[in-house]
Design brief:
With about 290 residues, the chain is an alpha+beta fold. Helix content is about 45%, strand content about 20%. The strands form three sheets. The protein has a four-stranded antiparallel beta sheet with strand order 1-2-4-3. A two-stranded antiparallel sheet has the order 5-6. A two-stranded antiparallel sheet has the order 7-8. α1 packs parallel to α3 (about 45-60), α1 (about 5-15) crosses α4 and α4 packs across α8.
Length: about 290
């Protein structure tokens, strides 16, 4: 866990309850540090310990405290300039919510070891959207809810009412389904634009394969049917095999199946090879020559 989150919780407690309370929280949480470094990595247990201690010391319910911290966080990241990124994620709330996963991917440039949650939308209508939230961290649901509600107010002047539909542990991560109710009139306009814009892209598949030498093509049976010259050099013999035999799905936190892939059009998918790839001398020259 990066210090950005720890620092924001530290500042939230000090600004909300005062320095004396923060000192008590540190003692109850058995945290020796007086402050945190933004880009330094800390133990995953630090924030849960601080949050639980703050709940006991202040008498604030844990969920309420986490929600308030989520609201505070959006203002906190403004001093690092991240609010400028948040403001350009879309013209409407629906654009922001659909782009949440890509936002976390962007943050990996600054925080390469970050383990972000996965967000994806379903059942969108003019009155809101159903949001799936998956995270390997437990106990952050109300923190995320506070962020979503504050985002609607701060960037779109829109009230977002969050209703948790289900919450369960799936494997080693938490899967929460919540309904975000808000004025989603922009959804009607997006439907009309989708109907009006049905033209095919004006270039051939051969051109696409040439521009993207590390592409991979597989069909509903998950069997690889084609791959770019660069990928073929690294993984010879992959053609005709199941993609799941060679690769694992790192992100998003969903099952590696055809239905899951096609039902997440707004998510960036990241796959990693099951076996380490051996670096060969002059590999770059071999790819270029093809």
């Amino acid at each position: 866990m990066y210090g950005l989150l720890c620092e924001s919780l530290h500042n939230f407690i000090k600004e909300s309850y005062g320095d004396d309370v923060w000192k008590l929280v540190r003692e109850h949480a058995d945290v020796q540090l007086h402050s945190f470094v933004t880009h330094e990595v800390y133990q995953e247990s630090v924030i849960p310990r601080i949050a639980m201690a703050a709940s006991r010391v202040t008498g604030t319910h844990y969920n309420e405290l986490m929600n308030s911290w989520g609201v505070y966080f959006l203002g906190f990241v403004g001093k690092y300039g991240y609010d400028r990124i948040l403001k350009v994620l879309g013209r409407h709330v629906r654009d922001f919510v659909n782009g949440l996963d890509n936002l976390h991917e962007y943050l990996r440039f600054s925080y390469p070891k970050v383990q972000p949650p996965t967000f994806f939308c379903q059942e969108e209508s003019a009155t809101g959207v159903t949001l799936h939230y998956r995270s390997k961290r437990k106990g952050y649901l109300h923190y995320a809810m506070g962020q979503l509600q504050q985002m609607g107010q701060q960037f779109y002047d829109t009230d977002i009412h969050v209703m948790v539909l289900s919450e369960q542990i799936v494997g080693d991560y938490s899967h929460v389904i919540m309904r975000l109710n808000f004025d989603n009139s922009a959804y009607r306009y997006s439907l009309k634009e989708d109907i009006d814009d049905q033209e095919m892209l004006p270039f051939t598949s051969d051109f696409f394969f040439e521009v993207f030498p590390f592409n991979i093509v597989f069909r509903q049976d998950m069997v690889v049917h084609n791959m770019g010259s660069g990928l073929a050099t690294v993984f010879p013999g992959l053609d005709g095999k199941l993609i799941t035999d060679t690769f694992l799905l790192a992100r998003p936190l969903v099952e590696f199946t055809w239905n899951m892939i096609t039902s997440h059009p707004n998510n960036l998918f990241e796959i990693i090879s099951k076996e380490p790839v051996k670096r060969e001398r002059n590999l770059h020259n071999r790819v270029q020559s093809e």
